């Protein structure tokens, strides 16, 4: 066992080194920025869980418009459990993710039997039906006003998680754990099966793969992690309202994923990080941000259809030509 661990570390030394550097930066980062920027970082960590879990669903070939409402399921579940029933945060966290997964499983069977544009429309209808339920029913969802007075998570008596920096570290640890699980799943046999279905569903069926089951599985697992993101959001904002999980948020999710790309695990992360920092830089032009983002997406689809993750492949041939002109051996 120890030998296998050592071999893994040696084979992945470069990536482990970069991750250690990134981890060190993330640990000291909240002490290097203002309080408002720490809040932005917290929301960014939540959005990273959201986009990576969405990418997990896209590996089966479907782009769900119900993913943000699944995040809302987790947020409403933790609000009802903690504020209504007094359940501790640490118990509510997995239970709320599970609640989103159960809702996704119920919706996944009819959705998994649709493909392409039909799945796109059906998932939108499913998500919108959830939003209408939260809006229409004042009991227990609070109607348009939503639910408030969501308690602050408790972690020993000496740690005040209502403060930005302690909550940042809470979100950082949960985000890292979620990303690790989803990364291992992406590299597992199940993850490869998801990708095989995306490439050719008919061929996958001919090989004995239960396509419907694996589509349902991807939708359910992705929604679980979206629910976890909703839990973190609800306990940071201390309130949930239906408008938080509307179509505008879904559009931003699609923009982040398209801009970053879905072919690799890190693609959506790149997209949400770059566009979040860009939106902060464009705060003085707040009214123009939707148009600017729309222009970015159009240009991305035309010139970089693979998103940011494909830029490396675009520049590799150019770098090889430069090395060849300099008398070096091109990379292969």
What does this structure look like?
This protein is mostly helical and 332 residues long. It has a domain at 36-245. The chain has 15 helices and two strands. It has helices at residues 2-11, 13-28, 35-58, 67-85, 89-112, 116-136, 138-141, 164-186, 189-199, 201-206, 211-237, 247-260, 267-281, 289-303, 311-325, and strands at residues 147-148, 239-240. Strands 1-2 form a two-stranded antiparallel ribbon. It is globular, with a radius of gyration of 21 Å. It starts with a helix and ends in a 7-residue tail after the last helix. The model has no long low-confidence stretch (mean pLDDT 87).
Portion of residues in beta strands equals: under 5%
Number of helices: 15
Along the chain, the helix and strand elements come as HHHHHHHEHHHHEHHHH
Helix content: over 70%
Biggest beta-sheet profile: 2 strands, antiparallel
Distance between the termini: 33 Å
Instruction: Based on Cα principal axes, name the global outline.
Output: globular
Mean pLDDT: 87
List unreliable stretches of 5+ residues: none
Strands of the largest sheet, in order across it? 1-2
Category by helix and strand content = mainly alpha
State Rg: 21 Å
Total beta-strand segments: 2
């Amino acid at each position: 066992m120890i030998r296998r661990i050592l071999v893994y570390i040696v084979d992945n030394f470069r990536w482990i080194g970069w991750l250690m550097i990134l981890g060190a930066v993330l640990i000291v980062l909240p002490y290097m920025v203002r309080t408002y920027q720490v809040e932005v970082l917290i929301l960014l960590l939540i959005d990273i869980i959201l986009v990576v879990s969405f990418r997990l669903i896209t590996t089966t070939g479907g782009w769900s418009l119900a993913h943000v409402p699944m995040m809302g399921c987790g947020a409403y579940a933790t609000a009802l459990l903690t504020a209504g029933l007094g359940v501790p945060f640490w118990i509510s966290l997995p239970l709320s993710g599970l609640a989103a997964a159960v809702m996704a499983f119920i919706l996944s069977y009819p959705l998994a039997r649709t493909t392409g544009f039909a799945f796109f429309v059906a998932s939108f209808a499913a998500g919108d039906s959830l939003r209408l339920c939260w809006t229409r029913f004042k009991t227990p969802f609070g109607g348009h006003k939503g639910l408030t007075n969501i308690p602050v998570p408790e972690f020993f008596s000496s740690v005040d998680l209502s403060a930005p920096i302690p909550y940042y570290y809470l979100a950082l640890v949960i985000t890292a754990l979620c990303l690790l699980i989803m990364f291992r799943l992406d590299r597992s046999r199940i993850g490869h099966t998801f990708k095989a279905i995306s490439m050719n569903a008919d061929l996958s069926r001919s090989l004995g793969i239960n396509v419907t089951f694996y589509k349902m599985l991807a939708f359910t697992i992705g929604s679980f992690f979206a629910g976890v993101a909703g839990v973190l959001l609800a306990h940071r904002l201390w309130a949930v309202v239906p408008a938080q999980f509307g179509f505008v948020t879904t559009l931003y999710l699609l923009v982040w994923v398209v801009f970053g790309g879905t072919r690799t695990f890190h693609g959506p992360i790149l997209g949400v990080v770059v566009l979040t920092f860009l939106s902060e830089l464009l705060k003085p032009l707040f009214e123009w941000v939707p148009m600017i983002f729309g222009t970015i997406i159009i240009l991305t689809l035309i010139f970089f259809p693979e998103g940011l993750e494909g830029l490396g492949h675009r520049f590799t041939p150019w770098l090889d030509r430069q090395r060849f002109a300099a008398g070096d051996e091109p990379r292969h």
